[in-house]
């Protein structure tokens, strides 16, 4: 089953075809290939269900006309029953079985149209067989069949047009074989049949055009909603992200930290903070330029992201060259190991820094603090501890990790 993202991508891809189809409304009966395929994917299951239900109803109605056969065609009603019940009804059931098969989706309209032609042919057959004067009125059954197929079942216009022409031609070329049909009555019935076919085809065309137009407008509404949601997501992402490093910003960190602190207080689980500062970054910026400094910050952000793998952890740029890592459900020992991994990772990146006082490459200092919050304790308590540990790391030579209250 396609995901929401997959469907959204598909709709965005189809947008030019949708606008093109709306602009040339005269070709509503056939969309561009990809759009037509998508339309068929969505519409075919509903149409199949409707055609199957209507087909079962059509079989019942068709067989109910056995009553009319008895009174209108008394000379051949037994034969008519045999044709209705023994030939046409089983054939109709066979076509409905074909329509129900998913693999034959593209032939649904062909099968439905064949049903219309088959039942119409049976009426013509009765006309030819009967010698009774009532036969002159029996062609009206064909009008019902054409109207049912074109307006109720709503066979696709192209098929409706083709099968309506086929039924008309079948009737016109067979009318001379009906012995009880006067020439005037034959001409009139042909004209009435032609008129009913034209009227039902006009209705069929309008219905299909409206269905397809509504489909296009619905897709455009969905696309507008998708674009709006995407814009909102981007705006939300911008509001919580640091544009340069791609990490969370200070505002997002403050909100998330407060929420996690309250949760840890209620549930009594440990929470840890890492404060990170790039060693002698001002010298790096002053000597290599701000663009190089921005590239360095971006690389540090990427390195930090690679070391923060759990979904509930949060990495944020705290300000300038400082980063902070929030680690819920994390003890001091684990937090220290994560910090040490980060320090080693940055050092191994080998970003040249000839103006550092402790190395010829970029290094970082980290302060770690951890606690299980108490109800009476403010969240600033942990921030102050992590900041104090970072300050100690910087005072004791930098390029190291210091845990709050731990020996250097």
Question: Mind explaining what this structure looks like?
Answer:
It is a single chain. The chain has 408 residues and is of the alpha+beta class. The chain has helices at 4-23, 33-64, 66-72, 77-99, 108-129, 140-153, 157-174, 183-240, 250-267, 281-288, 290-307, 332-348, 380-395; strands at residues 271-278, 314-319, 322-328, 364-371, 401-403. A 5-stranded mixed beta sheet has the order 2-3-1-4-5, sandwiched between helices. The protein is rod-shaped, with a radius of gyration of 39 Å.
Q: What's the structural domain tally?
A: 2
Give the helix/strand class. Answer: alpha+beta
- SSE order, one letter for each helix or strand: HHHHHHHHHEHHEEHEHE
Count of beta strands: 5
The percent range for helix content is: 55-70%
Q: What is the arithmetic mean of pLDDT?
A: 91
Provide the low-confidence segments as ranges: none
What's the shape?
A: rod-shaped
How do the strands line up in the largest sheet? Answer: 2-3-1-4-5
Strand content: 5-15%
For the biggest sheet, the summary is: 5 strands, mixed
Q: What radius of gyration results from the CA coordinates?
A: 39 Å
Terminus-to-terminus distance: 57 Å
Number of helices: 13
Sum this structure up briefly.
With 408 residues, the chain is α+β, with helices and mostly antiparallel strands. Helices cover 66% and strands 8% of the residues. The protein has helices spanning 4-23, 33-64, 66-72, 77-99, 108-129, 140-153, 157-174, 183-240, 250-267, 281-288, 290-307, 332-348, 380-395; strands at residues 271-278, 314-319, 322-328, 364-371, 401-403.
């Amino acid at each position: 089953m396609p995901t929401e993202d997959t469907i959204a991508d598909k709709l965005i891809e189809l947008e030019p075809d949708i606008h093109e189809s709306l602009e040339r409304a005269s070709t509503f009966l056939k969309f561009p290939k990809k759009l037509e395929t998508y339309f068929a994917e969505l519409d075919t299951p509903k149409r199949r269900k409707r055609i199957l239900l209507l087909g079962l109803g059509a079989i019942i109605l068709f067989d109910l006309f056995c009553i009319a056969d008895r009174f209108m065609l008394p000379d051949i009603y037994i034969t008519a029953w045999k044709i209705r019940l023994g030939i046409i009804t089983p054939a109709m059931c066979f076509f409905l079985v074909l329509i129900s098969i998913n693999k034959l989706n593209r032939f649904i309209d062909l099968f439905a149209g064949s049903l219309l032609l088959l039942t119409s042919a049976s009426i013509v057959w009765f006309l030819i067989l009967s010698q009774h004067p009532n036969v002159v009125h029996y062609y009206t059954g064909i009008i019902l069949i054409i109207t049912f197929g074109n307006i109720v079942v709503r066979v696709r216009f192209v098929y409706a047009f083709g099968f309506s022409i086929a039924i008309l031609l079948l009737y016109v070329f067979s009318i001379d074989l009906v012995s009880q049909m006067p020439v005037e009555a034959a001409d009139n019935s042909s004209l009435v049949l032609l008129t009913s076919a034209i009227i039902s085809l006009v209705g069929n065309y309008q219905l299909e055009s409206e269905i397809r137009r509504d489909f296009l407008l619905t897709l455009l509404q969905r696309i507008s909603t998708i674009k709006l949601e995407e814009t909102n997501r981007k705006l939300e992402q911008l509001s919580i992200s640091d544009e340069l490093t791609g990490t969370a910003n200070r505002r997002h960190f403050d909100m998330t930290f407060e929420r996690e602190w309250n949760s840890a207080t209620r549930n009594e689980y440990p929470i840890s903070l890492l404060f990170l500062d790039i060693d002698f970054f001002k010298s790096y910026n002053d000597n290599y330029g701000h663009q190089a400094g921005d590239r360095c910050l971006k690389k540090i952000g990427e390195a930090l992201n690679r070391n923060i793998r759990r979904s509930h952890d949060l990495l944020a740029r705290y300000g300038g060259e400082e980063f902070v890592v929030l680690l819920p459900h994390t003890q001091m020992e684990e937090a220290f190991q994560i910090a040490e991994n980060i320090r080693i990772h940055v050092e191994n990146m080998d970003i040249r820094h000839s103006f550092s006082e402790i190395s010829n490459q970029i290094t970082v200092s980290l302060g770690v603090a951890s606690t299980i919050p108490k109800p009476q304790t403010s969240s600033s308590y942990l921030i102050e501890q992590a900041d104090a540990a970072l300050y100690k790391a910087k005072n004791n030579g930098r390029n190291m990790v210091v845990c709050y209250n731990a020996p250097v």
